Amino acid sequence: MNAPTTPSLAQDMRLALLRSDPALSHFDPLPRIIANDSFANGHCGWSQLIGNYQGDLDTMLPGYAQHSSAMLSTLSHWDSGSHGGMNSSYALKIATKPVAGARNVAIKRHTFRKRGPIRLEAYVTFKPEANELKLSETDVRSFGFLFDLQGGDQDGDAMRVMPHLRFLNAENGVHTQKWQFKQQTSDIKPMGADDKIVSHDHLNPNDWQDLPGGEQRLCYNEIPTKVNWTYLCFDFDLKTMKATGFRCNDRVFDLSGFESIKMPAMKNLWCMLNICLFAETDTNKRAFLYVDSVCLSGDF
Amino acid sequence: MLPENITAIVTRNETWTGTTASEPFEAGWAKEAVFFVRALKEPSGTPGKGSVEISPDGIHWIAEGTEFTLPAARDAIAVARITHFGNWLRVRAQLDDGAHCTVLVTLHLKA
To answer: Which of A43, A60, A61, A72 should one mutate to test binding to chain B, selecting the residue with the greatest count of B CBs within 10 A?
Structure first.
């Protein structure tokens, strides 16, 4: 008779398999991998975040109207050629327009099976367009990520919950370098007259708050065409709808002061689990967020 | 694995006047590209000239050689097919003084 597999043995085996798999060993996923996106394999379902509209594209809120499609990039530079990604030639590139304050957002849309812990991990880097022969370290305003979540249709406590975190690299030329979150979205505006579609610009520039203890100096490197990949890990519990952990490289941040944007549940978004990645520019120069790989995992 | 292809919306509901261009797009993984330019509203004035541009770096641009006429009516579509472009692509447009065209620029890329 075979001895039953003990939980610790199963965990050890799982960890050994993860650590020996080059495609996963740079992540620390929870037991179920929902998506493991390496952009050498294509766009992996990441598309542009388009704003809501009805009847006419002119009804789209301006914050969304500026968005465009993300692209597969080799981080091609005028002086040194292609930089490439961590494990392949390619990364996903989210590029703003060359207008101070402009932003662009890529999104991947899921639903969840169970309200439990989820983890978002990614390797990213950011740079401005290298069109000046100077460091340009304050040209990118920020990069960041968010979840867009809503409970199931039978959940009595269902809310729409949107945890946001951004690295405010610079603002109005000041090299601030700190993590921020936000609890407020914009006014919710109807699109059209029949009360079916609404829109709100949750990434509007207002209402960002400093994460307590959230100052961090990242590796930017010495000229605009040298990049280094940065590790992000964000934990969220869908059961309590609370953020439970955030790590960036060697720093683990206290989220006791963190809160999400919350609003009443919307009528078509049950079990929604969306991820957004975004970039903002501080100057009239394009800001680029490059994403080497993303892993979304859960414990269910 | 099936070959990658993507439909990218590089310009949406923007009104082009004078000399303008779509945002730079990296497409080095693709062997073929097709730009579609659709007029979302009734254009005004003489239809402008469109052309495809390529670039060594996404900063400096040069004509690829493909040229087309911008759409002359609402929902009309102009098209440009490109098969040899390196990495960077964009569409350039030139319209006469007073002319304008509100466009949707769709880029199809195929490995």
So the answer is: A72
